[in-house]
Amino acid sequence: MNEEIQQLRSITLTSGKIKDLAADCEILKIRGSVALHQELRLQKISTHGHSSFHSRVVAQVLNNTGSCMIKDFCDVTEMTNAGNLTMKNGQVQKINSTGKLTIEQKLQAEHFNATGFVKAKEIHAKHFQLKMSGRSEINQLIADEICVEKDKLSLSFLKKKLVCKRINGRTLELSNTDADVVEGDVVLIGDNCHIQTLYYKQNYTVSPNAQVQLIIRSESE
Description:
By secondary structure, the protein is mainly beta. It is 4% helix and 74% strand.
């Protein structure tokens, strides 16, 4: 009997527009081309193929290995992306991306870890780590701890660069980064960085292979 209940709670979808997913579904698996047009509250979502979510998504776990688009707000505890994931707005405890990740508006995260490509309007995090496989763009990046570097394992002919308007945090370790404004308490500007203005509170270092046009010490609060 328990096995039957467990099977009922897991649903696999392969195609179609879904507006009436069973209320007792806890695990959703997408294995084809599926569009969901209802608010979802699930334990786990696994997507492989082409999936689009047109309403709010709340889940403990979301794993994407295909092409996934979340067009409304998503609230996920643990998210992994090994494919192409696009979201509008989100709140995630822990995100781990090894593919291409696009944030159209704003993402809030505790732990953000990406190896690959990131394009975002705004990211707020406690811990942010990015290893770039190619060009990444983030309009505003705000985090307590930030580490940006190039991924040494990916193809070398791609230009591995992070382009930002503003980076703000406490402890910053940047390389291969172009930014208009960088602001932090302790800032390490590594190789291949081009920074317009650097604001620091405690101390900073700049690599001989980096360019910083203006350095300003901020008053500690």
